[in-house]
């Protein structure tokens, strides 16, 4: 995000991108489900987190925060918070600098569990964004019950609004 008042970038989102051998991009809608099915999503996500912590640590002062997406498998890992803290510690970063994006699809897998995890991690200083709101069956009251800093609307909702 670019802050118009300060004329500087305030936050960034870390996204993993892959390419075919010919250089053409592979859509995340292709490789993320495959990584989830094969069990590689956890390793992929931790690699991204390590890279982001290292890079963000080097950019200290140039940007306020960075957001990452985590999978349901990672949220089910009871060592999640500790592992993230270790990564941040190695980079000299505090938890408030890392924003965790949760997709509506992940939330809907187990709303009560996700709310509990999010509340625990918010208490430790982490911030949460709801990503792709409007792609599933959750509603505004559901989103309001969660400890969220931001809700990012799905592209399909933005297109509807733009046509009006």
TrEMBL record:
The cross-references to Pfam families, in alphabetical order and at most eight, read: EAL (PF00563)
Kindly give the PROSITE patterns that the UniProt entry links to this protein: EAL
Name of protein: EAL domain-containing protein
Organism superkingdom: Bacteria
Q: Which GO terms describe its molecular function?
A: cyclic-guanylate-specific phosphodiesterase activity
Looking at the record, the residues that make up the EAL domain are 1-164
Q: Which InterPro entries match?
A: Cyclic-di-GMP_PDE-like, EAL_dom, EAL_sf
């Amino acid at each position: 995000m670019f802050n118009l008042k300060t004329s500087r970038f305030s936050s960034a989102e870390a996204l993993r991108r892959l390419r075919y051998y010919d250089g053409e991009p592979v859509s995340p809608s292709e490789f993320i489900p495959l990584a989830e099915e094969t069990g590689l999503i956890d390793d992929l996500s931790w690699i991204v987190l390590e890279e982001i912590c290292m890079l963000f640590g080097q950019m200290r002062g140039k940007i306020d925060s960075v957001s990452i997406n985590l999978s349901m498998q990672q949220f089910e890992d009871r060592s999640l918070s500790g592992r993230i803290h270790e990564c941040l510690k190695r980079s000299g970063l505090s938890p408030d600098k890392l924003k965790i994006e949760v997709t509506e699809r992940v939330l809907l897998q187990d709303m009560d569990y996700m709310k509990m995890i999010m509340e625990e991690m918010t208490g430790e200083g982490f911030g949460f964004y709801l990503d792709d709101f409007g792609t599933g069956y959750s509603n505004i009251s559901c989103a309001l019950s969660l400890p969220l800093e931001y809700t990012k609307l799905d592209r399909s909702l933005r297109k509807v609004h733009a046509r009006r």
